[in-house]
Amino acid sequence: MLDSQSVKTTESGGPRGYDAGKKVKGRKRQVMVDTDGRGLILEPQPADVQDRDGACVVLRLSRRAFPFIATAFADSGYTGEAPAQATSIRIEIVRKPPDQVGFAVHPRRWVVERFFAWISRNRRLWKDPEATLTSARAFLYAASVMLLVRRMGRCS
């Protein structure tokens, strides 16, 4: 699953932009998770990067570490030629039913939204206070590792 989350940044500096759709000045977290909600690729970018453009970076990064991925599910923000042509991964757009009114949970998409909720429980990640994208990426992966360790602790 592919999705993005826009978060505000603090005054620490670093690259940031303005996401006009969410009305947020800060960074965007482009995320690829597996079907259980484990973070595979976590990539912070300035918030003014469109989803379809940021997806190309995430898809290319995923080919190195996870060459076996064949299909990725995404919302309609990832439509277009750029994500479809970025790699050999097939992008399947999950659309809402035409008769839907109001909020409803969509199949496959709730997994990535749940991942965003899980990592946002970390105090350091509700905003992005990092001065560099490298340190922001490191803290995203640290939060993802903490989720995995908690899961493993519950199993044993």
Automatic annotation (TrEMBL):
<dbReference type="Pfam" id="PF01609">
    <property type="entry name" value="DDE_Tnp_1"/>
</dbReference>
<feature type="region of interest" description="Disordered">
    <location>
        <begin position="1"/>
        <end position="28"/>
    </location>
</feature>
<dbReference type="GO" id="GO:0003677">
    <property type="term" value="F:DNA binding"/>
</dbReference>
<dbReference type="InterPro" id="IPR002559">
    <property type="entry name" value="Transposase_11"/>
</dbReference>
<dbReference type="GO" id="GO:0006313">
    <property type="term" value="P:DNA transposition"/>
</dbReference>
<feature type="domain" description="Transposase IS4-like">
    <location>
        <begin position="2"/>
        <end position="145"/>
    </location>
</feature>
<feature type="compositionally biased region" description="Polar residues">
    <location>
        <begin position="1"/>
        <end position="12"/>
    </location>
</feature>
<dbReference type="GO" id="GO:0004803">
    <property type="term" value="F:transposase activity"/>
</dbReference>
<protein>
    <recommendedName>
        <fullName>Transposase IS4-like domain-containing protein</fullName>
    </recommendedName>
</protein>
